[in-house]
Amino acid sequence: MLILNKTAGVFFKPSKRKVYEFLRSFNFHPGTQFLHKIVLGIETSCDDTAAAVVDETGNVLGEAIHSQTEVHLKTGGIVPAVAQQLHRDNIQRIVQEALSASRISPSDLSAIATTIKPGLALSLGVGLSFSLQLVGQLKKPFIPIHHMEAHALTIRLTNKVEFPFLVLLISGGHCLLALVQGVSDFLLLGKSLDIAPGDMLDKVARRLSLIKHPECSTMSGGKAIEHLAKQGNRFHFDIKPPLHRAKNCDFSFTGLQQVTNKRIMKKEKEEGIEEGQVLSSAADIAATVQHTMACHIVRRTHRAILFCKQRDLLPQNNAVLVASGGVASNFYVRRALEILTNATQCTLLCPPPRLCTDNGIMIA
Ligand code: KG4
Ligand code: ZN
Prior knowledge:
Elements: E1 3-5, E2 10-12, H1 16-25, E3 38-43, E4 48-55, E5 60-67, H2 69-75, H3 80-102, E6 111-117, H4 121-138, E7 142-146, H5 147-153, H6 155-158, E8 165-170, E9 175-182, E10 185-191, H7 197-207, H8 221-229, H9 254-271, H10 282-310, E11 319-324, H11 331-343, E12 346-349, H12 353-356
Parallel strand pairs: 3-6, 6-7, 8-11, 11-12
Antiparallel strand pairs: 1-2, 3-4, 4-5, 8-9, 9-10
Helix pairs in contact: 3-4, 7-8, 7-9, 7-10, 8-10, 9-10, 10-11
Protein name: N(6)-L-threonylcarbamoyladenine synthase
Domain Gcp-like: 59-364
Organism: Mandrillus leucophaeus (Drill)
């Protein structure tokens, strides 16, 4: 290919690198596709090693993920040193897989984005040191990413959402309600005073020994509870939602976990079984816990909607509530939130379940 060298006023054959630079300046890539800025995202904050290559218009060019769920289910929870080792064992392969799927050469990346907080320090460290090494090798810019901001903004990949909107982040490590006023402008309205809802579900699932249940043995605690709850009767027990008199938007899940544990112990006595065996009423307990958790989440979110509308922080009509994080992939919770948003003239938006749980796309 020939390009005009204006200063010399003559035609010359440029190097391949110059051709690419020239084409890139016009956002054009040889072949069929347009070249946008392309970011590699890397996520290792908890128990998923994930990577994705996304362009600036939101096209996912390649993605890969390794979940540690099965290993941690066997050890009865996440052991940070085990998670760290598994991230170390997999990160190279996962990043390579995401890049290969995208057919992007590492040198064509515009930047590398990586979760730097919050999360398990040992897990975060693996992603961070891998990324910094890559950044050094490829001489690319590094973009530090806040894990919760990434969860909150993922919806902009699938829907056109204007600021401000309300976001409810419910996962295994986090629980918060915030008003999103810009890409990194968040007003925190409420948070969990103790554990996160996913953590509570994981603990209840473990106490119910759902790993021994043939239908749930490979599922995360929250997924196992959702699965079993479909077969259960939520009216079998009556548990009051926590903090129901608190005049704020905070959450609490420890009390719910403790009351549920007491119920489980009582049932074990009645059924004459030991801890570690699956109760015949496990599905009823799952349905009750899921229902009570959903009621609590909806009540606190309702308060946040009213607060924002009273202060004109959100529009009176068609305000958007975004629910994200692992627990937001729960359809019972989504349905409960939908009832709330219908009643308050809001619109509920949830990323598809695979984008609710941790992934590399939201980081990229
Ligand atoms: O967002 P995420 O993948 O990781 C964190 O940042 O925590 O969320 C994982 C959490 C786990 O506690 C898991 O039990 C829960 O989300 N979870 C669910 C469901 N799928 C995953 N909870 C309720 N229902 C589900 N379907
Ligand atoms: Zn997360």
